[in-house]
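Structure ticket #2291
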Amino acid sequence: MTHSGEELALQAANAAADKKARDILVLDIQELTPLADYFVICSANSGTQVEAVAHAVRDKMESLGVPCRGTEGMDEARWVLMDFGDVVVHVFRPEERDFYHLERLWGDAKEVPLQLTT
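Resolution: structure written out below.
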């Protein structure tokens, strides 16, 4: 079964929520860049939680048949970026999220409403 990019982004957001990620945001960036169709952005309080969120998202996406094409930042666990093709997931520590402020950088993106299952 194939899933739309939006469905996959929402599944990733729910996996992050399962590990108590905060301030979860899904942005539709299809019209803004060829990099991806959706960004999932969330925060985690510690390096350990960043890793837990990242692993949960990877496990969920792989269970849906979507392999991770690449991961950056896991060693420092301050900002982990995971590329699933149409969906890119960003897991931030709060300081990094405030500093890089991707929501502002991608301010023209449409926010996708979340219905978290947790």
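Closing remark: The mean pLDDT is 95.
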